[in-house]
C-alpha cells in the first residue's frame, strides 16, 4: 500500500504544482513562484509548531487533540512530553518535519534577505524539537552545512561583493543567534519552574550535552542503541525480495528501527534499491538544464541538500515515502522541475499562439480568397 499511496500523492502534487501555478508563473516568473511555494511550506510547518507548543502548555487543547488524533499504540509515558501535532504520534517523524521546515526557512532567509522573521520562526521550531524528538536538531546541522555551501558557491561565482558579504554575515549570525537564544530559553529555570513535564522534555533533549559536562564522556544512549540494530536477513529470499509482514519491526523477527534495515527486511535488497533510486532520480531531474536555466544554481543546491537530509534521516527511521516528509520533499525538490517544465510549456504555447495569429492576420491582409470559393 505504501507505493500506491506514494503514487497518488506524487501525481496529485504534480497536478497542483504544474497546472494550478501556471498563472502565477506567467505573472511573476518561475523563481518567484518557487519561492512562494516554499513560503507556503514554511508557513504550514511553523503553524504546526505553534499547535505543538499549544498542545504542551495548554492541557485542555492537548486532551482534545489526543482524543481525536492520537495513535493508541503510543505509550502513556510519551504522551506527556512528545507532542503529536496533527500527526497522531510524537517522535522522530514529527521532529524531522519541523526540522525540514527549519532548513526551508534558512534557504528563504539566504535568497530573500529577510532574517528577523526567519530567526523568530526558527527559534519556535527549535523549541518544538524538545517537545517532539531530538531528530530535528540533525536538520540544524544540515542547515549549517548548507549555509557554508551557499557561501562557497557565491564566492566561486565572484558575487561576494560587500553587499552580499553583509547578507551572508547576517544569515550566519542569524543561525548563531537562533541557537544561542534557544539554548538560553530552555536552560532558564524560570521558564520551566514548576513544570516538571517541560523540565523532563528539556533534560531528555540535552541529556547527551549534560552528560558530557558532568562526566567528560561524549556518549548518547540512542546512538549506542541504534549501533546495535544493524541486523541483516539470513534467509536469501527475504534478503532478495523481502517480506511485507517483516517491514513491521514489532513482530519479533528482528529488533531494529533503522530505516534502511527495515526496508531491507520488508522489500528486500531490490526494493531497497528501488526506494533509493527514486530519490536519486529526483536529484537527476533538478540537475536538468531547464531547471538550471529557470531556477538558478542556488535553488538546485538547496534541493540537493534537502535530499541529503532525507537520506540521512532514513538511517534513523524510515523516511522514504512517509506520509509526512514525502509530500514536503516532492514539493521542495520536484517542484523546481515541474515549475521549469510548466514555464517552458507556457512559453512554447504563447509562441505557437502568436505564430498562428500572425499567419491568420497575414492571410487576411493580402485578401486571401476563401477556400472552395465559399462566400463569393
Structure, explained:
There is one protein chain. By secondary structure, the protein is mainly alpha-helical. Helix content is 74%, strand content 0%. It starts with a helix and ends in an 11-residue tail after the last helix. The chain has helices spanning 2-20, 22-28, 30-57, 59-69, 92-112, 115-132, 136-156, 162-187, 189-192, 196-205, 207-215, 221-227, 236-241, 259-286, 289-295, 297-313, 325-365. Helix 3 crosses helix 6 and helix 6 (115-132) packs parallel to helix 8. The model is unreliable at 347-356 and 371-376 (pLDDT under 50). The protein is globular, with a radius of gyration of 25 Å. It has one domain. The chain has 17 helices and no strands.
Compose a concise summary of this entry.
The protein has 376 residues and is mainly alpha-helical.
Question: Which key features would you list for this structure?
Answer:
single chain; 376 residues; mainly alpha; 17 helices; 0% strand; globular; disordered C terminus
Helical proportion?
A: over 70%
Most strands sheet: none
Uncertain stretches of 5 or more adjacent residues: 347-356, 371-376
| Rounded average pLDDT | 76
Which secondary-structure class do the elements indicate? mainly alpha
Shape: globular
What is the string of helix and strand elements? Answer: HHHHHHHHHHHHHHHHH
**Helical segment count:** 17
Q: What is the number of strand segments? A: 0
Distance N terminus to C terminus?
Answer: 66 Å
User: What is the CA-atom radius of gyration, in angstroms?
Assistant: 25 Å
Q: What share of the residues does DSSP label as strand, in percent?
A: under 5%
User: How many separate domains?
Assistant: 1
Amino acid at each position: 500500500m505504501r507505493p500506491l499511496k506514494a503514487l497518488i500523492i506524487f501525481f496529485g502534487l504534480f497536478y497542483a504544482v504544474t497546472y494550478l501555478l501556471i498563472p502565477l508563473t506567467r505573472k511573476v516568473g518561475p523563481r518567484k513562484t518557487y519561492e512562494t511555494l516554499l513560503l507556503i511550506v514554511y508557513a504550514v510547518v511553523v503553524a504546526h509548531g505553534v499547535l505543538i507548543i499549544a498542545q504542551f502548555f495548554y492541557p485542555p487543547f492537548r486532551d482534545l487533540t489526543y482524543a481525536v488524533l492520537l495513535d493508541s499504540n503510543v505509550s502513556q509515558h510519551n504522551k506527556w512530553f512528545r507532542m503529536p501535532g496533527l500527526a497522531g504520534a510524537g517522535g522522530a517523524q514529527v521532529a524531522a518535519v519541523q526540522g525540514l521546515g527549519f532548513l526551508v526557512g534558512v534557504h528563504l532567509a539566504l535568497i530573500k534577505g529577510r532574517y528577523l522573521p526567519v530567526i523568530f520562526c526558527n527559534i519556535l521550531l527549535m523549541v518544538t524539537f524538545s517537545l517532539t524528538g531530538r531528530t530535528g536538531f540533525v536538520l540544524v546541522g544540515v542547515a549549517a552545512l548548507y549555509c557554508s555551501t551557499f557561501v562557497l558557491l557565491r564566492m566561486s561565482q565572484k558575487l561576494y561583493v560587500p553587499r552580499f558579504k553583509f547578507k551572508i554575515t547576517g544569515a550566519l549570525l542569524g543561525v548563531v543567534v537562533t541557537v544561542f537564544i534557544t539554548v538560553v530559553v530552555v536552560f532558564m529555570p524560570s521558564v520551566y519552574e514548576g513544570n516538571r513535564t517541560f523540565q523532563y522534555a528539556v533534560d531528555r533533549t540535552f541529556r547527551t550535552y549534560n552528560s558530557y559536562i558532568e562526566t567528560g564522556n561524549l556518549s548518547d544512549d540512542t546512538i549506542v542503541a541504534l549501533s546495535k540494530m544493524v541486523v541483516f536477513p539470513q534467509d536469501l529470499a527475504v534478503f532478495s525480495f523481502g517480506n511485507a509482514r517483516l517491514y513491521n519491526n514489532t513482530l519479533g523477527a528482528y529488533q531494529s528501527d533503522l530505516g534502511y534495515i527495515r526496508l531491507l527486511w520488508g522489500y528486500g535488497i531490490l526494493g531497497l534499491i528501488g526506494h533509493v533510486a527514486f530519490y536519486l532520480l529526483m536529484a537527476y531531474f533538478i540537475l536538468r538544464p531547464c531547471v538550471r536555466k529557470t531556477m538558478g544554481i542556488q535553488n538546485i543546491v538547496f534541493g540537493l541538500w534537502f535530499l541529503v537530509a532525507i537520506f540521512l534521516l532514513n538511517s534513523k527511521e524510515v523516511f522514504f515515502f512517509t506520509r509526512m516528509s514525502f509530500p514536503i520533499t516532492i514539493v521542495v525538490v520536484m517542484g523546481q522541475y515541474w515549475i521549469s517544465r510548466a514555464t517552458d510549456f507556457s512559453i512554447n504555447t504563447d509562441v505557437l499562439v502568436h505564430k498562428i495569429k500572425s499567419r491568420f492576420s497575414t492571410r487576411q491582409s493580402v485578401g486571401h480568397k476563401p477556400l472552395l470559393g465559399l462566400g463569393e
